[in-house]
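Appendix B: complex inputs.
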Amino acid sequence: MSTAEPTQKTRKAKTNKFVLILEQFLERYNLSAESSPEQLSEHAPELNALLPDWKARKCVKEALARGTEKRSAFSKEQKEALVPDQRNMIYSVRKRAQEVTKSEDKWDIFINTLDLGPKGSKDGVIDDKEMVASSSNQSRFRKYLAEYGADRELIDRYAKDSKTTTASNKIQQERTEKRLANPGRTPEHFTFEKVHRRLQNIDTSKIPSMQDLADVIVMLSMRPAEVSSLQIINYKPDSEDPPAWYKAGYSWYCTGCRKQRDKPMPMRLLSMEKDPERARELLTWIQDAIKAGKLRDPVYTETGKRNNVPFAKFIKSLKTNQDEDEITPELLRKIGAKHASMVHAGPNPTPQHLDNLSEIALRHKINRLDAGKNYALGDPKSKKEPKSEPETGDGPNPQTQASSPASQSRNNDPKKSQTMDMDSMLAEIAMLAEIRK
DNA sequence: GTTAGTCTGTCAGGGGCCGG
DNA sequence: CCGGCCCCTGACAGACTAAC
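Resulting structure:
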């Protein structure tokens, strides 16, 4: 009998073990393409129990759709009935909010809030992770409730769990402090010199690459999601009545910042690229390419949904040293702030001065002095003995902005006037830093 | 294999509150 | 006023899953 057997006809050799399980399963329960969806769905849980993960389910789904010699292919409905979409099974926060809003029952709000709260899943012990996550999900629950139209007052009354919130806040504060204690280093690939060189060599007549995108993000300390919306403008007040956001002596601003949804207030521009015109050119170059579909937005898909996986993967791949931390899109913003503040600070900047510059580069509000510290990345170069400077009363601060004339060795350029704007900015910052002390 | 969409855990930081 | 502290939301990264 060892004859013929022309088995290697096609790629049916791939008899995955899950496919075998499926065929046995179908046989045992006498299921086929003739079965109704109702019949099939009765057996869904049992079959699902045999399939350990989504890969297995994928194999099975494909097999169902494909059919065999003995068995014809299942329709889409039948397939869905037998191996239902797992994503519909999750009782997500969003789904809760939707249902609860519909029921209009305050107790439903309350119960679900508690259910989303910390439960001590294992041994009744609530760890930090669970606590913080619980608080986050409760917050999310409130947000979705409001989104679906639940009553504001009910939300505030029945969807707030102050114990959990407080505990979560405490944990997060501790984490922040720990993080600040040991900041990461600047990745080799994004040191100032490397980024600066790449930026200078950019040819805007070409199509931008992901690397160009990354460098521009660094250059402008952007949030990844800001790439398509940020704009650099030049503003000069033409009257004695400038808008409230106008800062005397500054003419370059950014608009389209992500976090200001209500009042889009322009924020001062501070970039490691000292020529604002060039910065703007590079930014619009990137944006035009995205609009034209030649370059992906780092965060959004064409349908407006979030998907930063391709860009994040690219950024991650740029890690050169084993001992470096992972590079993420968000890290580029912090790196950019550091580069910008270093570039614009004078030869002997005080930490306060750098913080001030950082805040401007990051386009924060200037309320919180300590905010910029979050971004103080460790840098071997600037790390030095903490000379306990008498930083208080030292009035005679030499003009820190001495930076302007040198470093300007850019080829050509009649654009000096623009950089003068930057320089006057620096002067003001330096003064502010002094006054604050 | 690659891409897209959704969910959760985590971080950043705007804003409110309160004592001085 | 104002600076510090706390709350809580919005944005991010990664895990998952299905679709292509």
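Residues 93-181 of chain A form one domain.
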